[in-house]
Amino acid sequence: MSITHPQGFLAAGVVAGLKSTGKKDVALVVNEGPLHVGAGVFTTNRVFAAPVAWSRQVIADSRVDAVILNSGGANASTGPEGFADTHRTAEHVAEVLQAAGKDISAGDVAVCSTGLIGVRLPMEKLLAGVDSASAALSADGGDDAAHAIMTTDTVTKQSVATGEGWSVGGMAKGAGMLAPGMATMLCVITTDAVITEEQASALLAEAVRTTFNRVDSDGCMSTNDTVLLLASGASGVTPDEADFQAALTQVSAELSRGLVADAEGASHDIAVTVVNATSDDAAEAVARAITRSNLFKAAIFGQDPNWGRVISAAGTVPEDVAPFDANLLDVTINGIQVCRGAGVGDDRDLVDLSGREVRVEVDLHAGDASATVWTNDLTHDYVHENSAYSS
Amino acid sequence: MSITHPQGFLAAGVVAGLKSTGKKDVALVVNEGPLHVGAGVFTTNRVFAAPVAWSRQVIADSRVDAVILNSGGANASTGPEGFADTHRTAEHVAEVLQAAGKDISAGDVAVCSTGLIGVRLPMEKLLAGVDSASAALSADGGDDAAHAIMTTDTVTKQSVATGEGWSVGGMAKGAGMLAPGMATMLCVITTDAVITEEQASALLAEAVRTTFNRVDSDGCMSTNDTVLLLASGASGVTPDEADFQAALTQVSAELSRGLVADAEGASHDIAVTVVNATSDDAAEAVARAITRSNLFKAAIFGQDPNWGRVISAAGTVPEDVAPFDANLLDVTINGIQVCRGAGVGDDRDLVDLSGREVRVEVDLHAGDASATVWTNDLTHDYVHENSAYSS
């Protein structure tokens, strides 16, 4: 159940003192090969953190030897000095691993950071943490690494999928500020399958498109979102591409579903599925408009199957983005079709919203494409966690 | 201070029993001429209420004789039957006013409704209310009318601006679900100035663009938004067009500012001004991205001058929509430049967020255009009011 399940990877998670809580806050993942294929997907926010700028350069040649991750500071909006800190971290990782006999260059060390924006990292602590993490590297260190990247997460997010002789493992963190263009989070996925650089890049993008990019907890896009895929080829097995895509997507789906389930202050996980749209994009746009509606999200918190708020959110999507006849909209909430033909449907009192999971289906009657976007309800605890503490 | 300040208008607000509270819930406004110029701006939501469909037809010929407004029911998502109810209401208004000796046809009676979606209006009560309102029409009935359109509003919103021999008066309702494409609300503006149909339409659109369309309390667009302008010409004075535009915009600005000040559950009114953008549209897009950020809005509730959440929201606006260099962003909150060059600026502890009004200025350093969008903070009371009660 961790990133060290696939062969060819070492990992560690240690306490470096970046977090005031004294919990693990530095993670290191090393790909021992024989392959060192790497791919990444990053936030589309134009305001992005120094480690994102750095890691984009690292993956440009599709090679990643190691990933160093820290919680306790995002290293975002920290200027050229922040970028220098990231660079120095990668160089230190390379030096320490070289001293341990590994053939790793700083330009192949990806860096991920998460925590407060606008604050420089305490570099002495971080570099000492790199030393500790290097010393602690182990073939079953994945779980420690998953703990070290947690911020407000209450549980680790880990997943494994296995093929015939190969496997995919993943870890992620993120418990708020989940949004399109990728949930706010860090994620590292490993595999021992033999795949090419082109496959790594294309298959990761496809997996992210329908998983991480379709969780939208609060519509806010972070400066640090990163998903990395590292392939070691250590199994020696070249998988069927469709099988590998399926495994990669499964791990991505489980991790992203885990992010929603652990979202800050949420009391409901809500899957909004739009069916019979003219295209995937149209379906996703309508689903996203609904998952972005504070009124809808507050209604679900109040266990109110308020279909009026669902269709009025759907109606804000421009016609050219999602063609449909607004008079034909049907809305089904947890199995009860409460809105039929944009008007009153079955008895709304039949809808049971007492459980954690809520399923909303909107039928556009316009085509045959569909998409699901996951979100959370808007609760008192969300407001509390995001107003009482800076982040 | 009311819509009956300009000459040539009668108004009334009565209790028809649509509201369970027993408060006034039906308003009637009659333009006695000599001109009967009318213009309107409506919600751009593709899911729109029956009265919006009807009133769009009414203003098509730029003539409006009367407006009937009700709270206690939005008549949205009520199907063909709901449209028939609106039609019947307009016909009843015309009949009653004709019986009172006025030359008014149903096709020139605009209808506005506000309240719950998906519920038919109690037509017997509403039509009896029309009778009462007609009997109560008075040249100083504006204040009663303003009371009759209130829903969760705690105060009426009224405004008057005067020119040389003419004036503009306005009333509005709305205390939640304020969003672009127009704040969710009903608004009637009257004037006794002599203006043409073309002026009414163009000058109203311009006034709405920079006022009602720039308040965005919670990002949710309603099904019933309507702003109507009625010109009686009763002053006999033809105003300078720029003077009239200024007065119309002033009334629209005061009313829309009043909507923000009375927004459901808010504890801060927040003006986000984006300066030095390449265009008005670019400035507005960036301002709107910030006013839509739940994280930013929750931070202001917590009196946290969190500039990181400001610039990370700005960074979500695509480059082609708003060209700017993300490394140059400055953020000033209540006079303190807390972020300079996308990094740490002056001491954030100097920012005083204890007052109701908050001013956030974002400098894009890209051009010379600017725009201000008003919003509210995200509070426990917002969640409570929108989860505990259906609407």
TrEMBL record, chains A, B:
Q: Record's family?
A: Belongs to the ArgJ family.
Q: Where is this site: Cleavage?
A: A183, T184
Membrane-spanning ranges:
none
Q: What is this protein's record name?
A: Arginine biosynthesis bifunctional protein ArgJ
Q: What's its top-level EC category?
A: transferase
Pathway listed for it is:
Amino-acid biosynthesis; L-arginine biosynthesis; L-ornithine and N-acetyl-L-glutamate from L-glutamate and N(2)-acetyl-L-ornithine (cyclic): step 1/1; Amino-acid biosynthesis; L-arginine biosynthesis; N(2)-acetyl-L-ornithine from L-glutamate: step 1/4
Write the gene name: argJ
Alphabetic keyword roster: Acyltransferase, Amino-acid biosynthesis, Arginine biosynthesis, Autocatalytic cleavage, Cytoplasm, Multifunctional enzyme, Transferase
- Location within or outside the cell: Cytoplasm
Q: Give the molecular function GO annotations.
A: L-glutamate N-acetyltransferase activity, acting on acetyl-L-ornithine as donor
Read off the lineage from the record. Answer: Bacteria, Bacillati, Actinomycetota, Actinomycetes, Micrococcales
CDD domains linked: OAT
Q: What does this protein do?
A: Catalyzes two activities which are involved in the cyclic version of arginine biosynthesis: the synthesis of N-acetylglutamate from glutamate and acetyl-CoA as the acetyl donor, and of ornithine by transacetylation between N(2)-acetylornithine and glutamate.
Query: In this UniProt entry, which residues are annotated as the site Involved in the stabilization of negative charge on the oxyanion by the formation of the oxyanion hole?
Result: T114, G115
Positions bound to substrate: T151, K173, T184, E264, N386, S391
Q: Which organism is it from?
A: Demequina zhanjiangensis
Kindly state the subunit structure of this protein: Heterotetramer of two alpha and two beta chains.
